[in-house]
Amino acid sequence: MRHLLEIDDLSVAELGRVLDLAVDPSPPQVLDGQGMALLFEKPSARTRNSMEMAVVQLGGHPMYIQAAEVGLGVRESVEDVTRTLACFHACLGARVFDHATVEAMAAVGAVPVVNMLSDGAHPLQALADVLTMKQEMGDLAGRVVTYVGDGNNVFRSLALAAGMLGMEVRFTGPPGYRLGDIDRDRLATAGVGFEEFDRPEEAVAGADAVYSDVWVSMGQEDEKVKRLADFEGFQVDGSLMDAAGEQALFLHCLPAHRGEEVTDGVVDGPSSRVWPQAANRMHAARGLLAWLLGEAQETGQ
Ligand code: CP
Ligand code: NVA
Asked: What pTM was estimated for this model as a whole?
C-alpha cells in the first residue's frame, strides 16, 4: 500500500505523473461514493480547504476531524483511530505535531495515509510549489530556487520536490536552523543538487525563485523571542529581491508573518506568486489523490 508521508515516497516518474494529473481537466473519479478522513492536530486554512475540495472533485466526501475530538493517542491509540477511520474512509489525511504519528498510521496498513504537515515534512505544499514553478518557468531542470530562513518541514519537502525535478536548491539561514546530516543524506540519495550559503545576498543572486516560510512554526510559539532574534538579517525584503535579480519570483507557503520573514512590499509586489501558489494547493492535492487512489492501486505498487 502506498502513502505520501514525504515527497521521496514518490519516484521522479511518479512525481511527474502527480503533476500531470493535477492539471487534468477530467481527473479519474477515484473517490466516487467514498470518504476521506482529514484529521487535524493543528490549525489550517489552505490545507483543509484544498483537500476538502479536491476530495469533492474526485467524487468523494471529505470528513474534517479535530484530533482532540477523537482523542488521538489519548482516548484511543493512534493505530486504533486509524483502523476505525479505515472502516469508513478510503484514505486518511493527517496534520500532526510529531512525524512519527503519520508513520504509525501508515504502518497500520489499513488505508493510504497522506501527511498534511508534520514537524518533519509538508509534501502537499511542495507539490503545489513545484506545480507553480512549472507553470511559470516550464521545464524546471537547471532552474534555481533559493530558500531563505528556517530549515523546516516546508523546506525539506520543497528541496526534495524541486531537486527531484532537476532544480538547483540553495539554502540560507542562521546556524542552528540548517539541515542536519540525515536530511542532507536524504537529499543526496534523491539526487538533489543542494548548496548552503551564509549570506542571503549570495544565495539569492540569479535565482529563479526566492522562497520563505515563517520563522516560528506551529508548536514553536514558546521559542518566538529567541527565533526572531536569531533570524535577524534573513528577512526577504525589496533589497534582497533586487539582489536576486528581476527574473526572480517570490514564493511562500503561507500563512506569512508579514514584517518578520517577509515584507508587505514583497508579498504584495510584482514578483510575488503566492496566490497562484495557494490556489495550486487544491490542484496538487487532487493530482496526488487521483494517483494515490488510482494508478498506485491499479499497478499494485
Ligand atoms: N500552507 C499551509 O499549509 O497552510 P495552512 O496551514 O493554512 O493549511
Ligand atoms: N512551517 C510552518 C508551515 C505552515 C504551513 C509550520 O509548520 O507551522
From this structure: 0.98
